[in-house]
Write a structure and sequence with these properties.
- Keywords: Membrane, Transmembrane, Transmembrane helix.
- This is Amino acid transport protein.
- It comes from Terrimicrobium sacchariphilum.
- The chain crosses the membrane at residues 39-57.
- With 59 residues, this protein is an all-alpha fold.
- The protein has one domain (2-56).
- 78% of the residues lie in helices and 0% in strands.
- The chain is built from 3 helices and no strands.
- It has helices spanning 2-18, 21-32, 40-56.
- Helix 1 (2-18) runs antiparallel to helix 2, helix 1 (2-18) packs parallel to helix 3 and helix 2 packs antiparallel against helix 3 (40-56).
- The radius of gyration is 11 Å and the shape is elongated.
Length: 59
């Protein structure tokens, strides 16, 4: 899904510039997981959880 891929790219770039590992890992996960999940509902749920994780696990 393009939406979560864009959020993942933003998190990845932010993490690289700030030197924080958590946004980099979550960003990579957001960009990669749709390749392994077929169900649209699961793609949306996993993407929402990973996006929420960006805010819960911020430094």
């Amino acid at each position: 899904m393009i939406l979560f891929g864009g959020i993942g790219m933003g998190a990845f770039v932010y993490g690289k510039k700030s030197g924080s590992l958590k946004p980099v890992i979550i960003g990579i996960a957001l960009m990669a997981y749709p390749y392994f999940v077929e169900s649209s509902l699961l793609i949306f749920l996993i993407g929402a959880l990973l996006t929420a994780a960006l805010f819960v696990f911020r430094d």
